[in-house]
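Let us work through a complete example step by step.
Step 1: write down the sequence.
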Amino acid sequence: MDLLPASISLLDASVLIVTAGFTSLLTAAMGIGGGVLLLAIMAGIVPAAALIPVHGLVQLGSNGNRAWMTRRHIDRGLLKRFALGALVGALLASLIVVQLPLQWIQFSVAAFILFLVWGPQPGRHSLGAAGQLLAGALTTLVSMFVGATGPLVAGFIHRHDMDKLATTATFASCMSAQHLLKMAVFSAVGFAFWDWLPLVALMILAGVAGSWLGLKLLDRMPAAHFRRVFRWTVTLLALRLLWQASGF
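Step 2: predict the structure and record it as tokens.
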């Protein structure tokens, strides 16, 4: 087995590995943003047919490691309900053979993010069990077609007004469940992950180092500052989606 896919040069691989480390640091320190940035950079290097499954595999490693590092802070009840909904979303995605319109998804996701972050805040438990199940199903379904639904999941997590470590831990665990199911769906339809494993393994190792450093920075960040950074980062990512969807 070759160490790199035929379409990836040594320079390309180096850029991807460094980017994986930096974006994991970004997500661990700020709570959100790394997955979208990684997808944007990978889109200029990785072939389109491999982009979403390979990005998902790297994000599974990165988020899974971050969830393990912060496992004591995970809201396990929320995670269980999100994961059950995500299973339903993955099963639905496996039945869809037509590509959903990207522009429609971008507009819808961006609008939903902005509503979750800036809309009325009824209270800490405003999303009940049914809402958490629905969030898992919808975000996982969308993830199969656009890859990085981190901002959407982050907006959902933000609605529960947890502290900074619980936010990061629960977000990482929910994303891990989502990416694991995504890998199962792409494996079932025949994507050859084996060709990408050496490169992905190095990207995940870089992500482990980035997550460790990012969590150190998170621990030093005041909670109020974290919430402001988290909210504005999610908002900027949503506005970026709207810009892309507008075609300018």
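Step 3: interpret the result. The first helix runs from residue 10 to 30.
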